[in-house]
Every structure is written in C-alpha cells, then in structure tokens.
C-alpha cells in the first residue's frame, strides 16, 4: 500500500543498428529481482555460520583411500568341509554313497568352487566338481555371499544339497571378525559302503605258516636294502668299490647292483649278480658239482642265505667276493627292529681319510731381489709379478718421507758421512743417497736403489719390513748389515707424523718435537754457516740428476721457466729470494724437501739472490 513507484525498466535497445532485447536489471518500481536474491538455503547457511577469527575454518580430514576388493582380499579364501549324498540305483550292496568335498569361497570376487579329493581306484570322476564361478542362490538371480555361509547349514548348488560341517581356522576368524556367530562344528558323515569294506574278512580255513603263497602276498614289494663295499686293494690293481645289495622278502632272493659315479671309467653294467637264491652251506659232495653247467638245487644246499644273515657291520662272502655291509635304509632298520628286536643299526664310516697335505717348503732366500719376487719362482714355471696394492699406490703417489742419517762405523772417515733416506709411501721402498762432499775422498751419489728393507729379527719365510713408524730421531736402521742413526727429517715428515699420529709411538713423536724446537733455536746460526759454504760443480750435477728422477712427473715443469723469465726483467738469470719462494709456492714445488733445500743453497748468490737458471735444470731433459 505504501508503494508509489510503478515504472518498469526498459527492455528494448538498439545495438549496431539492430533492435535487441535487453535483460532488465531491476523489477517494477526499482525492486530487486528474485534471481539476484539469495536462496533460503544460503540464508540459513549464513545465519548459522559462526565466524572463526583465531584459527580459521576447521579443516576436514581427507577421505580414506579407496581399496578395491581384488586388492584387499587378494589370495584370501574361505574353506569349508562339506559332503553331499548321491543315490546309487541298481546295487544290492549300497543304496547311496556319501561324497566328501571342499568348498572354497574367494573373497576377491565372491566366486566359489567345489573340489572333491581324488581317491585311488574309486571309479568315480573326482577332482574339480564345480569350477570357480559365482553361484546362484535362488531363482531371482541372487548369488551366494560369504554372509550366507556357516557351519551346520545346507546350501543348494545346481540341484545338489551340500551340508557344511566345518571350516578352517582362517575362515572362522574372518567370519567372527565380521560379527557372524558360527554354529558348532559337526562330524563328517561316513560312507557306509567304505566302512563295510574296512571290516575284516571272515576266515574259513586257517592258513599254514609255511605257505609260500602267504609269504608272496604278505611280503610283496618289500625289499631290504643294504649298502656294502668290496675292498680289493690288497691285490694288484685292486680298488674299493661300492655296491647295493637287495634282499627280496617275498622269495628270499638276493640281487647285487653296482654303484656308478660320473666319469668313473667303467662300463655302465647295472648288475653284478642277477636276482637269485644264494647258497650259504653246501653238502660235502657238492664241491665236485658242475656249477658251470647245472644249476644248484635244494639237494646240493644245506642252508640258504636268509634275512638274518644280512646285518650292518657283518662281512659276507658271495661268489668268492667279500662284501662288508656298512649301512641300510630306514625300512630295513624298522624290519629288523620288529622281526629280530635289533634296535641299533648305526652307519659305519668306511670312507678313507685323505692323507694330510704336504706342506710346501720354500727354498732359502738367496739374497737377490725382493723376497716376494723370489717366491714366485717356486709357484709357477713362468713366474708372475706379485700383486700390488693399487689403491695405496694411488693415494700415496709422489709422497716421500726423507731423513738425514749417519753411518755407525768404527772407521773415523765414515763417522762424518751423511746419508739421505727416502721412504716412498706408495711402495714402502727405501732409497739411500749420499750427498757428495768436496775433498772428502768418498764418491757420493746413489748408495742404495729403491728396495724394501727387512728388519734384522725377521725370517725369510715371514719377512717384516721397515715401516714409517720405525723412522724417528735417534732410531737405528739396519740396512743389510750396516747400521744408520736418524739425525734429522724434513718438514713434510713432521706434517705426516702429526696427521698420522696413531702409527707412531709417544717416544717417536716426542723425539721429533724436541728436535724441531732445538732446530728453531739454532736456525740463524746454521743459516749463516750454510751461506758461507762452497759447493763444487760435481756436487751440483749429482744433486740435479737425483732431483730430475724425483720430479720428472711434476705438473708445473712446462711453465716454470716462463714464470721466472717473466719476473726477471733485466735478464740477469737471478731473482730475489722472497720472489723465488713465492713463485715456487704458486707452482707447488716442494721447497721443504731436504734435497731441494740443498740445491737452493748451491744456487744462492749472497743472502738475497738465487740463480734460477741452474735451479730449473731439474725440470728439463
């Protein structure tokens, strides 16, 4: 009643010269259209929605993962014991028979199958009665489900009624877990005709104990098996051979079979003696009986071999051969236990133990080369080099420990001689170099080539070689009868000992540290004395030749001359000491090495200049 505006929104318009319809935005009098208004469900949701300011809207948990039935119930089968009754027409002995079956229910696809155990000589087609499929429960089209199965119920499958009497443990646990109350198990029904067959037959005539037919029927297919050996090693070209003796209880016959092994070099004859009765004691006149022409009958034999003559551990003479029985099979043991009361028939070990291997004695070490190289001549006609530790050689490549040593000798001239020990970590070899001393009367140079040195207390069979832990200040090294005392080391040895302190004793570490402290205290005086030393050209050439072999694989040998030549602007052939050591450090030249230090001293001119032309000769060919 209070509405005063009734105008309508324009619905016609022109666009690109054509008359088109325009959708109204508002209703009559400017009212809002129903299509733009929220629905009642949206209004209720907005009315009941509680604002959450602290943690926001609650997050719903994700839905559980869907697991299909063929994955969840894979290889899970319910098993029921059942039977069904089958009529037998036109038979006077039985009117019906009970057939026991097993019903399997496959949970993965709700299929079922019926299996009947196969009975030998039953004359009935048995096995899989109903193959795996979904079985109809009624005429409507419903199928059997595991909820329909239980103990003590009847189910009808294709017109046959099956009685479920029991199930296995898995089936019981599964059905109980699903809330199904199982009926108590029932006894399996028995077939009356089969039970009738199990009853003993009526005996009208008492059989004789000595009836051969009874023995044949009683012991048919029962054979005693013995394992024996024939040891003929006492004769020329004789050997020990293995045989199997069969004793047939049905007619007291004996058979001897040979045991052939692969590649034994014998013809594969299966039988040594064919199946026959074996005489044990002959009559006196039977010695002249022509056995090669006529067969032995009961008149020539007083006693035959029987089962009681074949016992484990007994020796038998058959056809002139002596057989020793050392074992039998389980059936034979059971037979002797029931028949003769012999309980224990242990197996006798007849295997001949092989003689102990002869220990290979190595000849004494002749002193030439390494012990490992000399031993290879004893192992093969064409000796092979001993195996080397490649990993150790790669890790310790170009790593050398150098020591300064003095020779212990009663000769006065030898006491002043000094030697440089080089220990190569890659191969554990040691080389000795004697720096030439001017006007000493002794020719310096290589004193000992690279070789491994054996400790004096070790033997040639198990040699013990010198290791880095044996070298320290004050240590005495015995080199083929010559004793050397370690006097000094280079700086790389000190760094190596600090990084591998576990290999050294406390005494060795303490000796190196104390020697280093004394050397630092007297360093200025020693440097002044060495600066005044003079060296001959022969000494320099010998030292350069030694360093060329040591630094032949140095990575910076191709660019060392360019580096020094670039800084020598006046082309004098000399550079400052500070610049010289800076260039050597950039090219990774081992200036801490004892031999390198000696060469730097020889190339020094005064206190500030070094002749780099003479120094770089160790990197040239």
From TrEMBL:
Residues 74-179, 220-340, 397-501 form the DM10 domain. GO terms for biological process: flagellated sperm motility; mitotic cytokinesis; mitotic spindle organization. It is found in: Cytoplasm, Cytoskeleton, Flagellum axoneme. SMART domains: DM10. Keywords: Cell projection, Cilium, Cytoplasm, Cytoskeleton, Flagellum, Repeat. One of its GO terms (cellular component) is axonemal A tubule inner sheath. It holds the Pfam family DM10_dom. PANTHER family: EF-HAND DOMAIN C-TERMINAL CONTAINING PROTEIN, EF-HAND DOMAIN-CONTAINING PROTEIN 1. This is EF-hand domain-containing protein 1. The lineage of its organism: Eukaryota, Metazoa, Chordata, Craniata, Vertebrata.
């Amino acid at each position: 009643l209070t509405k005063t505006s009734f105008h309508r929104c324009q619905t016609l318009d022109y666009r690109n010269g054509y008359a088109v319809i325009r959708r109204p935005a508002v209703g009559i009098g400017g009212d809002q259209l129903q299509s733009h208004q929220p629905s009642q469900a949206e209004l209720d949701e907005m009315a009941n929605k509680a604002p959450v300011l602290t943690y926001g809207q609650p997050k719903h948990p994700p839905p559980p993962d869907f697991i299909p039935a063929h994955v969840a119930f894979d290889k899970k089968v319910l098993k029921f014991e059942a039977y069904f009754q089958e009529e037998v027409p036109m038979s006077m002995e039985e009117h019906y028979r009970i057939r026991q079956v097993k019903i399997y229910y496959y949970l993965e696809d709700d299929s079922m199958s019926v299996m009947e155990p196969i009975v030998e000589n039953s004359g009935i087609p048995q096995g899989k009665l109903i193959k795996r499929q979904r079985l109809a429960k009624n005429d409507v089209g419903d199928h059997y489900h595991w909820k329909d199965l239980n103990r003590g119920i009847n189910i009808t499958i294709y017109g046959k009624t099956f009685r479920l009497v029991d199930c296995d443990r898995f089936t019981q646990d599964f059905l109980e877990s699903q809330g199904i109350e199982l009926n108590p198990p029932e006894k399996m029904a028995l077939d009356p005709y089969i039970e009738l067959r199990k009853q003993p037959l009526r005996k009208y005539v008492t059989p004789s104990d000595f009836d051969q037919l009874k023995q044949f029927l009683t012991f048919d297919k029962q054979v005693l098996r013995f394992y024996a050996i024939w040891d003929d090693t006492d004769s020329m070209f004789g050997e020990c051979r293995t045989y199997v003796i069969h004793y047939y209880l049905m007619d007291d016959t004996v058979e001897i079979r040979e045991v052939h092994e692969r590649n034994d070099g014998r013809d594969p004859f299966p039988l040594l003696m064919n199946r026959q009765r074996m005489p044990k004691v002959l009559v006196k006149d039977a010695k002249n009986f022509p056995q090669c022409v006529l067969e032995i009958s009961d008149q020539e034999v007083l006693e035959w071999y029987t089962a009681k003559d074949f016992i484990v551990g007994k020796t038998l003479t058959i056809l002139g051969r002596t057989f020793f029985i050392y074992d039998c099979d389980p059936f034979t043991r059971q037979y002797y236990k029931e028949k003769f009361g012999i309980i224990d028939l242990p197996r006798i070990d007849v295997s001949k133990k092989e003689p102990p291997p002869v220990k290979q004695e190595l000849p004494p070490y002749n002193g030439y080369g390494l012990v490992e190289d000399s031993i290879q001549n004893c192992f093969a006609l064409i000796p092979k080099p001993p195996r080397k530790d490649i990993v150790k050689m790669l890790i310790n490549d170009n790593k050398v420990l150098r020591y300064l040593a003095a020779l212990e000798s009663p000769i006065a001239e030898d006491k002043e001689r000094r030697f440089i020990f080089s220990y190569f970590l890659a191969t554990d070899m040691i080389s000795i170099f004697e720096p030439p001393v001017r006007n000493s009367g002794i020719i310096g140079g290589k004193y000992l080539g690279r070789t491994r040195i054996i400790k004096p207390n070790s033997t040639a069979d198990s040699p013990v070689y010198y290791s880095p832990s044996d070298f320290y200040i004050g240590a005495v090294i015995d080199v083929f009868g010559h004793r050397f005392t370690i006097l000094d080391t280079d700086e790389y040895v000190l760094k190596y000992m600090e990084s591998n302190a576990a290999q050294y004793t406390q005494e060795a570490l303490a000796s190196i540290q104390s020697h280093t402290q004394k050397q630092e205290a007297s360093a200025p005086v020693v440097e002044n004395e060495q600066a005044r030393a003079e060296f001959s050209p022969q000494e320099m050439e010998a030292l350069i030749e030694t360093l060329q072999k040591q630094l032949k694989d140095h990575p910076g040998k191709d660019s060392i001359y360019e580096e020094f030549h670039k800084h020598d602007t006046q082309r004098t052939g000399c550079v400052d000491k500070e610049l010289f050591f800076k260039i050597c450090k950039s090219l990774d030249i081992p200036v801490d090495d004892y031999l390198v230090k000696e060469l730097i001293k020889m190339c020094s001119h005064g206190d500030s200049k070094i002749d780099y032309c003479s120094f770089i000769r160790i990197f040239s060919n």
